Amino acid sequence: MFENLSERLSGVFDRLTKQGALSEEDVKTALREVRVALLEADVSLPVAREFVKKVQEQATGQAVTKSITPGQQVVKIVHDTLVEVLRGEEDPGVLKIDNPPAPILMVGLQGSGKTTTTGKLAKRLKEKEGKKVLMASLDVYRPAAMDQLAVLGTQVGVDTLPIVPGQKPVDIAKRAKQQATLGGYDIYMLDTAGRLHIDEVLMQEVEDVRNAVDPRETLLVVDGLTGQVAVEVAEEFEAKVGISGVVLTRMDGDGRGGAALSMRAVTGKPIRFVGLGEKMDALETFEPDRIAGRILGMGDIVALVEKAQETMEMEQTERMMKRMVKGQFNMNDLKMQLEQMIQMGGMQGMMGMMPGMGKMAKQVEEAGMDDKVLKRQIAMIQSMTKRERANPQLLQASRKKRIAAGSGMEVSDLNKLLKMHRQMSDMMKKMGKMGKGKMLKQAMKGMFGKGGPSPEDMAAGMDPKALEQAAKAMGGKMPGVPGMGGGMALPPGLSGFGKKK
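User: That's the sequence. What structure does it adopt?
Assistant: Structure tokens below.
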């Protein structure tokens, strides 16, 4: 998300922060580049102009140019302005789903990902908020649209309204309302039909459905890849139907993402969620300050910690923590960590959320390392016997050959994996000795809400300089993110593994 924009802005800020003293001219030159970067990212011209104007007013005063760290001051001003633009006048907040059954109307053009988003959101409301949800498809035009929603409902474990052929959208909406009331549902979601473009028939239909059910939320689903067209679509839907929020889809594949920056400023409607892939859990709440952090390469540790909370099992992780503090870290532990990395969005996904790691994620990609590397490493560990996993020192040359062959890899790859394990094991021992492992234990408690710091507190405490100092104390290796089971830094032995040949 926002890949190209992040790259351009980090280049501008790198030059600013390295310069030391700044003149007003330096700041103006940098901001000209910021404006070009925004325009290239498909941010609308009025929004880009207004953004640069706001930053310039604050960044060219005496307080900045005469401060000790002027470059960083400018970066902070840009960050705060970015948050302001994304948030608008009010915080997006949570969905208004009081007075059950609360209707949520999903609207948008054809192909924007409405049906998939309806399924994702229903799954989220069921799992994260404990709501009983009913989904209904009002799309009587697109072949198999209703069946698609029924299949998604089965996948995510959410009920869908039985299909009655020949019914009109308004009648289906009324039937959904009736069933949701009788069935004791908290929410019923109406997936409306789309068109390739906005026309009178589409708008009239959505209007009739809206009047029939009086939705608590009308969410417009727009494709983030369409850039400024997405903003125009939002303006038209707001003018004719009235929307309460926006969901931007396909934000994972977009190098620009300027629609997100323009959307809030131009329409005045909050972006509630962003879709980041095809999987049914690839939907994130749109948090302006965290998104701004990602754009400026400051990472998003809170999101990373939240992902860890979702994917790590408390008992299993606690057992592993006790072993680590004692300096016991075997191949089973390494396998568990590699599997968690894949569940948490893979190597690049995680690195993109870690402060200052955005550039390294790019280098990792260029080196030909992707999640296939992690899967191959897991395959090699699975080819070992229980005894060998518990004690990798037992491996002889003949066994190494068989393990490598059994997992379709080379002996050199297995040696790299064993070296990585040794380095990580040494690192665990050192971390276990630092305050007798108290830092790790405290962080783990926080991850699972057992009296430790919250994800936000942990993020606030993630001072990159402090991390660097800890790394030096441990022999120059970057420690894992606190609470990630200790090994969530790029494992040292990964360098050179699985490079493109």
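The longest helix spans residues 411-433.
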